[in-house]
Design a protein that fits this description.
Blueprint: E1 11-18, E2 21-29, E3 35-41, E4 44-48, H1 53-65, E5 72-77, H2 83-89, E6 94-101, H3 104-109, H4 113-118, E7 129-133, H5 136-142, E8 147-152, H6 172-181, E9 182-192, H7 197-203, E10 208-219, E11 222-232
Parallel strand pairs: 5-6, 5-8, 6-7, 8-9
Antiparallel strand pairs: 1-2, 2-3, 3-4, 9-11, 10-11
Helix pairs in contact: 1-2, 5-6
């Protein structure tokens, strides 16, 4: 028998080496038999499927900040296990969701029937969804007033980077490129695992109505306060 506080040893499903390091996708079972998937980067847990309230909140808060009326075109930086995209697609206003994912194995992984049977995975063949493999900053630079909403979850936060090169995304120049990719009145929302005061200060240099939203999540005996940072491109600015 297994006690309630014990977890099974994980089974490695995929292991790949990239320029940014070693990615490992693994599966383990909770004491109650529920499957949990984990993505490990260089030995550090990047994400798991055990708790996804904050990933859903990224979409929900971003959508709530969008002004009413019209169809929404959304850019999502980071597919992860698909929880943010799934929350987006529940809103009928979302006409197009462009998802940019750096790690190609995640895209094929979420298409596996065994994974889809255990996770509430979004249908990537949905005509409202376009998945691109690559760096989200390239898609941001190429866009010009194209999106009503941009959701970024490609690190553990603007001040807790998964890859050192991602610092440019949250620099003043990078945030200005986000501003330029949005339509007037468009919203930028960034997921963070911890406080990001320097990023908030930089957001205020080019966005209006900048806010930090706290999303409390219970993980076992611990409460963790995740954060969503938002700002809006002013109409006529």
């Amino acid at each position: 028998m297994r006690f309630s506080f014990e977890h099974s040893l994980p089974t490695v499903l995929v292991r790949v080496d990239r320029a940014t390091g070693e990615y490992v996708l693994q599966r383990r079972e909770e004491a109650d038999g529920d499957a949990v998937y984990e993505l490990i980067l260089n030995g550090k847990l990047l994400m798991d499927s055990a708790e996804h309230r904050s990933e859903e909140a990224l979409a929900e808060i971003g959508l709530r900040e969008c002004r009413e009326g019209g169809e929404l075109h959304v850019l999502v930086g980071g597919l992860g296990f698909g929880f943010t995209l799934q929350a987006l697609l529940r809103d009928s206003r979302v006409a197009r969701a462009v998802v940019v994912e750096l790690e190609p194995m995640l895209v094929s992984f979420l298409a596996r029937p065994d994974v889809r049977a255990e996770l509430p995975v979004p249908d990537l063949s949905n005509p409202r969804v376009l998945v691109r493999e690559g760096n989200v900053r390239d898609s941001i630079v190429e866009a010009s007033g194209e999106y009503d909403l941009m959701l970024l979850d490609v690190d553990n936060g603007p001040e807790s980077l998964s890859a050192v090169g991602n610092h440019d995304l949250y620099s003043e120049a990078g945030l200005r490129q986000c501003w330029e990719a949005l339509r007037p009145g468009g919203v930028l929302a960034i997921w963070s695992s911890e406080p990001a005061p320097r990023c908030l200060d930089r957001l205020e240099t080019c966005f209006e109505g900048v806010r930090q939203w706290i999303v409390p999540v219970d993980r076992g005996a611990r409460r963790i306060d995740y954060r969503i940072l938002t700002g809006r491109r002013a109409d006529g600015r």
